[in-house]
DNA sequence: ATGACTTCAGGTTGACCTGACCACAACTAG
DNA sequence: CTAGTTGTGGTCAGGTCAACCTGAAGTCAT
């Protein structure tokens, strides 16, 4: 018996890991994420987000990185805290109360390819999640997707999915995959170039079946808020 | 001795409580927040954010409401989770590791007036926080202010500071206090009315020393994201 | 080689929004 | 009644956006 007054409390760290992959049916890029099959009760044999108990000697984000890498072998380039889920009834079958601090992560396409899936790990398109997940993880995934879709419109996070050098068409396809809708290539180009989040490498892609596109790289930082109400000097 | 393998872990819930009050010097409205003087080590006698350990029988937001009300007597209308702070070195002097799930809250002006400050609680303008706060609370306050300023530009949260009925000038002064800059009355009016977050009550304010302004109330919901990249049908 | 095809690059146009500014309305104070 | 103050509503010029259009520059089939 521990010294806790009531029910035992567990602090866990989980991560929603996003990656961009072609859909097997359509060939279009979509969001995928890895799920881990639970081997213990509660929710044994159900799919769940990768995660684990907080490592008491590391920061929250470090714990997220560690548990994520241990279970899925991925090392994302972009990691960001999403939300802390801690309702008392979020894991009714569990013997203890679990508070989960959830992160979301973006995996680069080129790193993806060398990933060998670990046991009990499967990647799925976000729109085709298999069955109800363990705990409230369905809710968490839904929330993460919504937030990613919102954030991509005012922040250059889509770059985190791409390799060091990419064409504007690559970037546009990443946006289209996240937002799940087509974007006008011409207008997309104008917008991206005007916001200064990419810089020209001077080189072009070769071996394409069409006019070779210019190669760009992510510009070093440009944190900005999207303000609609402007100042009055 | 408990069963924890390493250092003991404490999960706390804190709240940054914002209120709008005239600055004693200038008379202009600014953001204020309540601070609580610590009566125990670590950081004894330093100012800190209101909060306390997670109540194991309640949700996170309920715990935030409870600790907030117990210490400061306020019952805000708007409560929102800000961030979970859990770096291992954020409270070096403390005997245990503390992970804080921090909320921020907006207090209505009219409720403010009936607040009798409890012992060891003082309200301060956010730009004049007294001395270094306990733990990493200076960082947390800074983060909360930045996020409030960003959010007010794309979400109608400023309404939470106002009573049920208010003039557009009241709302504009709330925005000006949060953003800390003047806004053009005419353009502000056009923008607010066009976004449909307020509705006309049909009545006007009386007893003013000028043309009586119309009274508005907050419109029921209109959650919308500020999208800059539009669809391509 | 030549032409068909594809995709990138870049410009134009009209609708809409923003910030700056102006004029009037409608009350109180003296 | 007059001055002063602030809300209300409108105009105007400049910028931004989505939609559309044209040319550039490769590959591929014949």
TrEMBL record, chains A, B:
Secretion signal span: none
Domain annotation Nudix hydrolase: ranges: 8-149
Region of interest: Disordered: 200-221
Record InterPro entries: NUDIX_hydrolase-like_dom_sf (IPR015797), NUDIX_hydrolase_dom (IPR000086), WH-like_DNA-bd_sf (IPR036388), WH_DNA-bd_sf (IPR036390), WHD_NrtR (IPR054105)
Protein name: NUDIX domain-containing protein
